[in-house]
């Protein structure tokens, strides 16, 4: 069992599962949380993640296959996507793929799902496809306000982690997003994003 990544929330291991490589994701105990609440949160996010990762396949979102779930250990064993997180790709490729990311986020929103943690590390590029992972904070919602929160987060991530290419990335993201949600929903969401920014709870991004 090889430790691949120590995430903010979980440890990611590369393991063997029935003869093939697989990913083991274990949510870690947070010492600062009350132990009862902590185990409840980890269990809840493990359930949410394993269910949603499979559900979104029917919308046409590429995700890893779930092989096994162990709620007692807050662990999920899933297919390894052998590509690279978008975050680690060359700038020109990230700019290109932002359109596809926008398209995928639009599909989720259209189907009443917000991802809840849209970062460029939660999209993996493999064999010309963009896979989506990390659904522990996802929520079923058709509210435009919730969808706008997803957009605000990815915009902030682009601005902080990919500052040099932010403008082209955001433009491409929005064009992909608009292509799936349509012009009416698009305008509504964009207005809410501007409104959130103008409230000053967040710093305005460009
Ligand atoms: N199924 C997978 N296939 C390949 N890499 C993965 C897979 N799941 C997670 N990873 C890698 O581990 C990192 C952290 O996993 P993630 O599920 O996003 O956990 P966290 O909640 O800690 O962010 C990802 O950014 C990715 O690099
Ligand atoms: Mg993640």
From TrEMBL:
One of its GO terms (cellular component) is cytosol. Signal peptide: none annotated. Belongs to the protein kinase superfamily. BUD32 family. It comes from the Archaea. This is non-specific serine/threonine protein kinase. GO terms for biological process: tRNA processing. InterPro entries: Bud32, Kinase-like_dom_sf, Prot_kinase_dom, RIO_dom. Keywords: ATP-binding, Kinase, Nucleotide-binding, Serine/threonine-protein kinase, Transferase, tRNA processing. Residues 1-206 form the Protein kinase domain. GO terms for molecular function: ATP binding; protein serine kinase activity; protein serine/threonine kinase activity. It catalyses: L-threonyl-[protein] + ATP = O-phospho-L-threonyl-[protein] + ADP + H(+); L-seryl-[protein] + ATP = O-phospho-L-seryl-[protein] + ADP + H(+). Component of the KEOPS complex that consists of Kae1, Bud32, Cgi121 and Pcc1; the whole complex dimerizes. PANTHER family: EKC_KEOPS COMPLEX SUBUNIT TP53RK (PTHR12209:SF0), NON-SPECIFIC SERINE/THREONINE PROTEIN KINASE (PTHR12209). It holds the Pfam family RIO1. Its EC number is 2.7.11.1. The keyword Disulfide bond does not apply.
């Amino acid at each position: 069992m090889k430790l691949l990544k120590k995430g903010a929330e979980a440890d990611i291991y590369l393991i063997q599962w029935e003869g093939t490589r697989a990913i083991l994701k274990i949510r870690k105990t947070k010492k600062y949380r009350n132990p009862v609440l902590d185990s409840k949160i980890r269990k809840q996010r493990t359930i949410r993640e394993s269910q949603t990762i499979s559900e979104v396949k029917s919308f046409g979102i590429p995700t890893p296959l779930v092989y096994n779930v162990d709620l007692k250990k807050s662990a999920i064993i899933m297919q390894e996507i052998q590509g690279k997180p978008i975050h680690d790709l060359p700038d020109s490729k990230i700019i290109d793929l932002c359109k596809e990311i926008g398209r995928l986020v639009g599909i989720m929103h259209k189907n009443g799902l917000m991802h809840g943690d849209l970062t460029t590390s939660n999209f993996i590029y493999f064999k010309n496809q963009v896979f989506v992972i990390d659904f522990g904070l996802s929520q079923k919602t058709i509210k435009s306000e919730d969808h706008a929160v997803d957009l605000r987060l990815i915009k902030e991530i682009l601005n902080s982690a990919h500052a040099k290419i932010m403008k082209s990335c955001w433009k491409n993201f929005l064009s992909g997003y608009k292509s799936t949600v349509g012009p009416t929903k698009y305008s509504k969401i964009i207005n809410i994003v501007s409104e959130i920014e103008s409230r000053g709870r967040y710093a305005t991004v460009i």
